[in-house]
């Protein structure tokens, strides 16, 4: 494994750590401040610091060091969790995220001086006896400039923080702080110098082995001059745990005392050392009287954390209550979904996974081909075939589930977006998330971020009103954004809802007319007006903001969602709010389709678009000009589109009365009926991109290989319908009139 | 007895495990990995090892908890265990020692120091 590969692992891990820390902090803000939550935040930052140090990202390490120190104080309960603290911590997390990005991409580290000052101030505020929560600068350490806590950042405080980091770094690098006993060593005389040592009982605890130390001393050039056995007692009073033996070792002058002390680094006070020629052999420490525990250092105020989860006194003033609250939380199970108990997991390169998915796709095709061949031989009902079919589907589902990821990874970015929006727009928004464990394909997840971000910005910018307006309307000052995800009949539904003012349809319509998107005399339903905001070049922001008022946002959103094979719908109520619903396929690789025959061609219509299929009664079909017709479906007229004409298939049925009509729902053009000769099958198809194998073709979403080995095109219903309706101009408005 | 020193590294951070593995394998150690204290216990129940190197702060079962559990049983009571710590303060060392660690490695570690620390506690 190369250093680059390890670094790649580190950065992937940073993402996870940041996410975990973010979730922890969010939970803290919501009031869940137990030790597990705080510790999760600490651990996230801590692990980034560890890697940053190992890979030499100095800026990243410096920042995480300060951040971690504050978190450690929070964990230990010396800094109380307040709203202003979580606010600082969240901002620090954003900066940390920028630091990670900078380290990964080799960019300039972000400006963090001001934030470091705030972090230091948060620590300093609680370091002194004065329990003032205000960021009033209490003198942290007498010698340090108090400027660190003052609101004007940069300059002075910057230097101060840098010094602080450097110290910490040097500490980490140099590891041990050497004792001042160096002069003693220098005095020890040129030829050889000696050391006397006596291991005590503790030197054999904890898997330590004094023999190894003696061996290491010899390796270093030491010579055992004397082994002091004078303290060994008579056999009947012999205690096997006590160190009775003492040794005097001599070393050549070129061996430094430090290197010898290093050998005893681990044993500490469990072994007495005496350097210098005239030093006395240290006395034997008997077990009962001895080892007053590694003297001064081993008496920390809090107990040594030998427990699995060090308990943290959070908000120490009411321990009883918080205990009860915690118990209550645990009891009703409303505790935050603790980071999913990490089962055993391995990391797989994505390429390998894609290869597997591809192979499974081929398997599905091969299996279908075999089924067809067998059917040709009159063996359609072979039992083995059914088994293979079942197994293939199992394999396919497992393979897909490997790629599936919880949508939480996308949702978790939202709090940061909201914080940034809050600082730029002044609108504070509360986030409610549900269904974050809903899984969908990685490719879908990856491409979901952008449209989701746009929709959220849009909701805050245009949907949610400023605080004063909200209060005037009898709402809470703080807006609420609801994000949810759920599976529904093989697709995934993502909703982004706000409780803002809803879409101002009058203004939208006025704007659309002004922009020439619709004519002034067009009569549109509420839903159709709402959909206008997706029209290219539409923007209603009275003041073009830098957030979502560029007028490119919403149509790009729709395009993105469409590219994912999904649809977007709007549900808006004036004064109550707006909800966008995204309907997406679980995967992009395989989809359900209806296989149809059109003349000499076989095509696939995505099932997602299909509403129903029917064979019309003659009186239900009405001619419209030379070669157009409409069909009356339960009182509603919808245009009939000849699929044969659209794709140029020969020898197709061209009278709707003799054909099969498939009613489809489209994004832009409402419903339409596709005229086909016959429906052959309804099954899963493996989608092959036409772009990569040929080139993009309008009206065609991709291709698939059928059971008999032939290639069938998958119809892009949306573009096909709108194109063929547009080509006969009036059809759309006539449909409207009808 | 096998000449190769067998090491179990316990750390929840994959990159840290990779780094340890990278530094140690190059020196002829036989390195196994566990992602937290619980995984380490499971692994140690089934396998033999000469030295355990563990991180302290980990989910499920942390490093101190792991050491405590190992020292409780007879099988690993005298097993050398090194903890990975980011601080070299005497207090932290005393803590590690009191918790039952044989020694410590200060992160970020220098590969040579790491190897020296392992050699110091292993046969």
Task: Give an account of the 3D structure.
The complex is a heterodimer of chains A (738) and B (123). With 738 residues, chain A is of the alpha+beta class. Chain A has five domains: 3-174, HPT domain (Four Helix Bundle (Hemerythrin (Met), subunit A)); 182-294, Alpha-Beta Plaits, CATH 3.30.70; 350-405; 407-585, Histidine kinase-like ATPase, C-terminal domain (Heat Shock Protein 90, 2-Layer Sandwich); 590-737, Beta Barrel (OB fold (Dihydrolipoamide Acetyltransferase, E2P)). Chain A has 23 helices and 22 strands. In chain A, the strands form five sheets. Chain A has a six-stranded mixed beta sheet. Chain A has a five-stranded mixed beta sheet with strand order 6-8-9-11-10. In chain A, a hairpin with a 2-residue loop joins strand 16 (628-633) and strand 17 (636-642). In chain A, helix 3 runs parallel beside helix 5, helix 3 packs across helix 6 and helix 15 (442-463) runs antiparallel to helix 19. The longest helix of chain A is centred in the N-terminal third of the chain and has 27 residues, at 3-29. Chain A starts with a helix and ends with a helix. Chain B is of the alpha/beta class and 123 residues long. Chain B has a single domain, classed as Rossmann fold (3-Layer(aba) Sandwich), CATH 3.40.50. Helices cover 42% and strands 20% of the residues of chain B. Chain B has helices at residues 14-25, 37-46, 63-72, 90-98, 111-121, and strands spanning 6-10, 30-34, 51-55, 81-85, 103-106. In chain B, strand 3, helix 3 and strand 4 form a beta-alpha-beta unit. The longest helix of chain B has 12 residues, at 14-25. The model of chain B has no long low-confidence stretch (mean pLDDT 83). The chains are: A alpha+beta (738), B alpha/beta (123). Chains A and B meet through helix 1, helix 2 and helix 8 of A and helix 1, helix 3, helix 4, strand 5 and helix 5 of B.
